[in-house]
Write a structure and sequence with these properties.
The chain is an all-alpha fold and 228 residues long. The protein contains eleven helices and no strands. α2 packs antiparallel against α10. The longest helix has 27 residues. The radius of gyration is 19 Å and the shape is globular.
């Protein structure tokens, strides 16, 4: 495909993409909340990522994709640390104290951080009145959500933990944004581009990173202690 020419997405694929975002991705927070009734938080996260990475890596191997490249694996590990360890571990822990719906709203607010932290696109983003208005309204919405949760926590024995959970969700959302932008702007030479791993392979390595970190002794003990 020639540079500068983009193939227009079909209406059906747009609908499918939005369905995946709203139903598949959105349901993640619901099922995490339900799974926490039976699993310690960090063990739940580790099981999820180790299992998913094994399935995805096996698929990539069957497809014949290259699985190893030191530079690509290190980049994937860095991104996986921010996206899947910092952010998702925070989400899983926080959903012990806030609902999956609240966690989903905070996660969706990542769009705000993308606009604020994507410096190369500042001129484009902040020259748009609708974009700036969206950021302002998004911030107002998050503040209102915090205020509502703070008022509700006054009558709750875990009130302080609920506020901490909200803060962790916001920090996790920022980490997700930083990781995504780092992945977007990683600079590679032409030779490195040719040796780069397939995006699905790098995604599998990201999940391996999170799965291993979450199953580390410190986090496993914290999870078991909570369950007890």
């Amino acid at each position: 495909m020639l540079q500068g020419h983009k193939k227009a997405a079909s209406p059906l694929m747009v609908v499918v993409a939005y369905f995946i975002i709203y139903v598949v991705w959105g349901s993640t927070f619901f099922f995490i909340e339900k799974a926490l009734h039976s699993f310690p938080p960090f063990i739940l996260g580790s099981f999820r990522f180790v299992t998913a990475s094994a399935i995805l890596m096996s698929y990539c191997a069957i497809k014949g994709y290259k699985l190893f490249n030191k530079r690509s694996i290190l980049e994937a590990a860095f991104v996986g640390f921010l996206l899947l360890f910092v952010d998702m571990a925070g989400v899983i822990w926080a959903e012990q104290y806030v609902s999956g719906g609240v966690a989903a709203i905070i996660a969706a607010a990542a769009a705000i951080w993308f606009i604020l932290l994507d410096k190369p696109k500042w001129k484009e983003n902040f020259s748009s009145v609708t974009t700036v208005a969206g950021v302002v309204l998004g911030f107002v919405g998050v503040v209102m959500l915090f205020a509502e949760q703070i008022m509700a926590s006054n009558d709750n024995a875990n009130g302080n933990l609920k506020i901490i959970a909200l803060c962790i969700l916001v920090l996790g959302s920022i980490a997700w944004t930083v990781g995504s932008l780092a992945s977007k702007y990683f600079k590679k030479s032409e030779a490195q581009e040719k040796e780069d791993l397939h995006v699905m392979v790098k995604t599998a390595w990201q999940m391996v990173t999170a799965g291993v970190l979450l199953i580390s002794p410190r986090y496993s003990q914290a999870s078991t202690h909570h369950l007890n």
